[in-house]
């Protein structure tokens, strides 16, 4: 009997991606996903790029599962040069070709080596040439005999290709390399053909549109078999990314809208909420057993393979014989394959707002339960409520699934409270510029004593697992002292694509052991306009100072690993604001770190101030890494601040900062 050295109980499918080992270079995709843009201009990156160029075949494609970052011997380099003219194993499976193209794009953005551009364009041409006339793509090109010729949705291969076509066709800034107008036109045609293929391969079950198989016959377009245990079926995994791609299309056709609606119904119908996966790991972290455990009200999961006629999950060993449950197949396939997935959760999460945006009545395709989980606020009376707070009051307490309050454009003069019992709540605005929540309380107006500040917020969030996006949240009292726009005193909170406006004390972040995440936001204020004791990560945000003062005033509790962390943010200011500190300590154990941020000239050379607290100089942790701009003057910073090393900065990952929370909730 194998001793169970390490047991992970009730391990939710899909969570493991967020807790990978911290070795950045363990896997090739980890290198490509590096957020530090400047790294792609280093000698280390250039060395890896030489390997990427070597592995590319002259036809334009790459083989799969290659650790491009590993150093090559002279003999290996010689072998690669000899096979470049061949088409051996060129594929788009497991991310091959599309991920190398992304790497080269990131390289070219930093180093204008024309070889990177040429290689990227060869890869793009390879993808264009590999497309079937019916719009699909095979797994290998040139064609490799066997199931590899099928139209391949497996492991999201075709979706990855179509995302490349979409970015190039729409001439976005996602890729630094800009093809000719002729190539752009070809990618637009390829994308449209690919979407048409997706629409035509959506499976009809007794005349009703459902989802997709992992692969479809390239001639008949019907679900097809791949490996012995990958039988014709409806896929809970691959179908999810297909639908998310369809949902990303602006001004979708009636056919696309029908496809998304039908798939959403199917996902609702086939979700499993009475099972959770238990994984048993050995000391090396390898899975040695999997079991499905019956529970109540579990987070939804989906089977990877479902019967074409009745959606029943099935499982298979390498003998190709269908089984009804996971424990009926051998350990090798049971433990070495992903039989369940939670990827469709993202479709269900985004569907309601997509439906409203595209004129689809949610109630036409959803259950009564879904109706209570999606409420609309509109000042013109076209929604369920005219006031946001009324919709919050109407939301269920401690719901098992997310509750979305969709707020149509308008200026809502309301003072909002999301109570502790309104967990899993989403405030979703129609647009961040035109969906405005505003109120004008301030310290003097409240007049409740020395703690009046904390009563001034326009929006107060007490419920865990809260998110807000596409909104403006404003304290409109003006420069009249302390006046909070947004107060967050709860855990697992995500604020994205929002505008947060105020003056002094704009944003208050607190809560016991609270972890909070701000992404793609604009935050504006005067003195201490980001303050509090929570652990908070800010990514890709604009932090704007209205006058000379202090950006942050952290009160990080003693012993807390992270306080406020700003990554890839831009600090700007009004022209009159020319002397702004990065922060001062509200409490002496304050922690604030800026990484890869652009600091305007308004930032004072010394950077930090001790707020007349000598003890703070011994106990605070104020640090920077790889910042840029006129305000980045590390040599002039106060002596008690820090400049992080590369290895220290790498510890400031989203996984580390927000650990001990449900990490996949943040994505």
UniProtKB/TrEMBL annotation:
InterPro entries: Pectate_lyase (IPR012669), Pectin_lyas_fold (IPR012334), Pectin_lyase_fold/virulence (IPR011050), Pectinesterase_Asp_AS (IPR033131), Pectinesterase_cat (IPR000070), Pectinesterase_Tyr_AS (IPR018040). Residues 376-659 form the Pectinesterase catalytic domain. Residues 1-21 form the signal peptide. Belongs to the pectinesterase family. Keywords: Aspartyl esterase, Hydrolase, Lyase, Signal. Its EC number is 3.1.1.11. GO terms for biological process: cell wall modification; pectin catabolic process. GO terms for cellular component: cell outer membrane. SUPFAM superfamilies: Family 10 polysaccharide lyase, Pectin lyase-like. Pathway: Glycan metabolism; pectin degradation; 2-dehydro-3-deoxy-D-gluconate from pectin: step 1/5. The gene is pelA_3. The lineage of its organism: Bacteria, Pseudomonadati, Bacteroidota, Flavobacteriia, Flavobacteriales. GO terms for molecular function: lyase activity; pectinesterase activity. This is Pectinesterase. The active site is at 528. PROSITE patterns: PECTINESTERASE_1, PECTINESTERASE_2. It catalyses: [(1->4)-alpha-D-galacturonosyl methyl ester](n) + n H2O = [(1->4)-alpha-D-galacturonosyl](n) + n methanol + n H(+).
